[in-house]
Amino acid sequence: MDAQKYLNEIKGRFPGTADAALERIKDGVPALLCPAPFLFEIVKYLKAEGFNYLMDLCATDYRDSLEVIYHFCALETNVKLTVKVRLDREKPELASITPLYPGADWQEREAFDLLGINFPGHPDLKNLLLPCGWEGHPLRKDYSRKPDQYD
Q1: Which of 9, 28, 63, 74 could form a cystine bridge with 79, CB 3.0-4.6 A?
Q2: How far apart are CA 26 and CA 8, in angstroms?
Q3: Is residue 56 part of a domain?
Q4: What's the CATH code of the domain at 7?
């Protein structure tokens, strides 16, 4: 099955995603724009379907929203799929996928640390790169470093 068929299957299995799911192709890899409440179940489905490798999890700030991007690969078939989730920047929260992909642990911590995205269900969500007590999230476009902060 190619990635486009998985996207169609997701739309059928998760009716709430049918209207909100947008498919885009970047470098030949289809992407699904997933509503946040469906993320964990969709990722669980992908894992059961053979997407056994989380290649990357990253996040970015688009000023009006934050986005978390997941890149998955089914190693046996070399099928790749991207899942994107847009979050409200005022309360960015997204279920942790660490119970499904333990390798997401530090990647979620990095997004928490640098962009302030909360991942409920994460086993140890704390700063990864910034020192304890650091205020703010330096990869947010509205971040302003305090002059006396760790000069």
Answers
A1: 74
A2: 17
A3: yes
A4: 3.30.460.80
